[in-house]
Amino acid sequence: MASKKSKCWNYFCNEKNRQAKCNLCSAVVATSGGTTNLIFHLNRHHNISLRSETTVTTRASGDVAQQPTEPKCEPGVKTNPWTLSASQRKLPLSRTNEITTAVLQYIIHDLRPFSTIESPVFRKMLSTLEPRYQPPNRTRLSEELIPALYESIKSKLYAELQSSEAVSLTCDGWTSRATQSFLTVTCHFVNKNWELSSKILQTDHFEGSHTGQKIGFELKSVMTDWGISDKVGVITVDNASNMTVAVEVSGVDLKLGCFAHTLNLASNKALNIPSLDKILGKVRSVVTYFHKSNISTEILKEKQVALQMPKHKLIIDCKTRWNSTYQMLQRFLEQRPAILATLLDDRVKRADKTKVVSGLSDSDIQICEDFVSNMDVMLTATLVLCEEKSPTAGLVLPLLYKLTEHFKPKATDSTFVKSLKNAVGSDLITRYTDPNLRYFLEEASALDPRTKNKACVDEETWDRIEDKMIVLDVTGVGITVKSEKTESGEIPHTSSAVVESTPLPALPVLDEDINADEKISKSPPAKKTALETLFDEEIVITGQEPALSARENAKRELQLYKEKKQATMKENPLLWWKTNYLLFPRLSKLAVRYCCVQATSVASERVFSTTGDIVSATRACLKTENVNALVFLKKNMQF
């Protein structure tokens, strides 16, 4: 038997036949004349390492390297799991997975690089919070953990898509800092809780030119991979010609041009009016100067306080987005007195810029004010249709009609206002004229309880919806009553009896009602009241309602929907359908196919800002598959 000089004997007591009993778990371990087995037992089962804590002498130099030593136990005192410190106890696997998941969520949500996991400061923080936790290395994070989490979230989304009634898509392309092209495809569907769900499907590396054929094949591949080829009826994309070809190649029935992009194109017609374009050039030069001069910016803040004006910063526009030009001009008009006071300050001495601001005549200022007041409705329409949590396809035609009426010139309008309205209005009337697309948008407006009574919805629209209700062939459950005996003692053979003068519309078949007849027959008969017992035999079926045809059922349900009070504009149409779907079983099923369609492709474009943070200057060499996984997880995970 080995002499008790090793530290491991603090955890063991001698047994016969070269065996030792562990004080922590009472396990018997063979010593075989040494302590190797005892040390392995402590390391494997109790996470106590004694080899790394012994003093090591290097042969080369003879220097002694002192390693951290384990806290010594008093002689003769047996240790157990309750007397060990927190750092000596083994961390449960469930707790390890919980911490690892939290680390992954931090890296994904905050767009941190994979190298974060190997940062000494980050590891020190983890060690301080939980000394027993061993974080994964960078390789395991990128090649094992992130892909595993991606597959897990992907499988859940796949199952959710398979259970959905209909799916719509939006897509757009972008280029990273590393000059790599990507195509992002997003999907939209109404889930079981009647909520509009928007998810990213894929962000694929796109090589070569962005031709319609290539984009179309890519879209077709995405739909096949996700098993939604038969669920997608509409794709929302921008108005580029290659996207028109792409939708045709993908096999999807309908292409919906992004309404926000359409408004941007129409608004740019107004910005190209010569008199306005000249003024915008002057305003832009002044705003650019303030953005480049920190001294002028500080003085501007002083003048805003002195003049009791809002402490707003000047806005520089982006020529590809008309709303930024609108906001630049609006802010310039608001801050014009403070701007002029700043430029006249002795600390600035910019006579050229002062001349620009003071040189704007009253007619120039009037043009700016007319532009802001008349284009305000365009900005509001753009913001409304960029909503992702509420259906927007039904709003396209009502908004288009309202904008068209707004931009009709009036006799009292000034020359500039007339030219602005003609420029914008003439562009708007050419949009969404394709017959099939027009029919779809009219039906979407009809099935939106907020817009069902708008001018764009006519009798032909209701007729088409009626035909589609019949095609859906929703099976209803008839309203039946228990058959009662007549005076002759016979039971009339009927499937349904008239309880009221006007029969109720058929209710949808629910899962729990599939075997309703069996449940009723098996349940004990309800106890009759005294009056029922006395007058039971006098109850007579006076008539029966013949079964209605599919068209009659559709007409009745459609008429009931048309007569119901229109929802207000602040109501969520999906919440309305969730409340009323039992009353309109056929229409509600049809409405799902329209409510999932987005009027804009903003959902895909919003990915650009996210990916700009992921594929940053310090991560320009990120693998394309990791870009796809990180964007997917960032947008689809619930944190």
Automatic annotation (TrEMBL):
GO molecular function, a single term:
zinc ion binding
Ranges for domain BED-type come to: 3-53
Q: Which UniProt keywords apply?
A: DNA-binding, Metal-binding, Nucleus, Transcription, Transcription regulation, Zinc, Zinc-finger
Q: Name one GO biological process term.
A: post-embryonic development
Q: Matching SMART domains, A to Z?
A: ZnF_BED (SM00614)
Keyword Transcription belongs to the record: yes
Q: Principal localization?
A: nucleus
- Where does the UniProt annotation locate this protein? Nucleus
This protein's record includes keyword Zinc-finger? yes
The family database entries (InterPro entries) matched by this protein are listed as: HATC_C_dom (IPR008906), RNaseH-like_sf (IPR012337), Znf_BED (IPR003656), ZnF_BED_domain_contain (IPR052035), Znf_C2H2_sf (IPR036236)
Q: Which GO terms describe its cellular component?
A: nucleus
Q: Which Pfam families match?
A: Dimer_Tnp_hAT (PF05699), zf-BED (PF02892)
PANTHER family named in the record? ZINC FINGER BED DOMAIN-CONTAINING PROTEIN 39, ZINC FINGER BED DOMAIN-CONTAINING PROTEIN 4
- Full protein name: Zinc finger BED domain-containing protein 1-like isoform X2
